[in-house]
Amino acid sequence: MSSHANIALTGFMGVGKSMVSKKLSTLLNRPVISTDAMVIERAGMPIADIFREYGEQHFRQLEAEVIQGIGKKTEIIIDCGGGILLNPENVAALKRHAVLIYLKASPDCILENLQKTDGFKKRPLLDVDDPLAKIKTMMNERQAYYEQAQMTIDADFKTIDEITESVLKAVNND
Q1: Which fold has domain 6-166?
Q2: Can you tell me the distance from the alpha carbon of 47 to that of 44, in angstroms, rounded to the nearest whole number?
Q3: Which residue of 21, 39, 60, 107 shows the fewest CB atoms closer than 10 Å?
């Protein structure tokens, strides 16, 4: 990996992208850009409110605008929202400007992670009676998108330190 290459982390919500991004930021002395945080800033409201007031399509459009703006930056860690790869233009832009890494975990691991962190309160797509079934369905729908990443890291029931170490090894061996 070039010392100037950006690192973009993708994967399903709750896999640990934000925590791994922060850890990488500290270890590599690079800033983190969270696409979700940038969407919130751009919209002036929380993600749940964007979904409720304007719908998922509007949220995805804001994500695309954020990704296009990131392309000019170097030496950053990009913490991608869980559905950002649903848009092929986002995939192309991320691959053009970063090493795109998929953090992969099982639905059971995702559910456990979200339960540990009160993650359901911030996840409008999981406001359902059977979140595990919803996670499985969404992961099946998104799997092909995630597999477009240049690298895949096993994050299943791994600690943030273990995932971070795997990411560092992968990008340094590239």
Answers
A1: Rossmann fold (3.40.50)
A2: 9
A3: 60
Q: Is the Cα dihedral 112, 22, 82, 171 positive or negative? A: negative
Dist. CA 33–CA 42, nearest whole Å: 13
Per-residue CA distances from 137 to 3, 103, 123, 142, 156 (Å)? 38, 18, 15, 9, 18
Tell me the per-residue pLDDT of 14-54, one tens digit each, with 9 for 90 and over.
899 999 999 999 999 999 999 999 999 999 999 889 989 99
CA distance 46 to 37: 9
Q: Round the CA-based radius of gyration of the chain to a whole number and report it.
A: 15
| Ramachandran category for residue 78: left, alpha or beta (phi over 0 → left; psi -120 to 50 → alpha) | beta
Could you state, in order of their start, the residue ranges of all structural domains in the chain? Answer: 6-166
Q: What is the pLDDT of residues 125-144, one digit of tens each?
A: 667 788 899 999 999 999 99
Handedness of CA 159, 23, 121, 35 (dihedral sign): negative
Q: Which tokens sit at 163? A: 């995932």
Question: Using CA atoms, how far apart are residues 159 and 157, in angstroms rounded to an integer?
Answer: 7
* Range name among 12-26, 56-70, 104-118 with the lowest pLDDT average: 104-118
The neighbour count for residue 85, using CB atoms within 10 Å, is 24
Q: Is the pLDDT of residue 119 over 60?
A: no
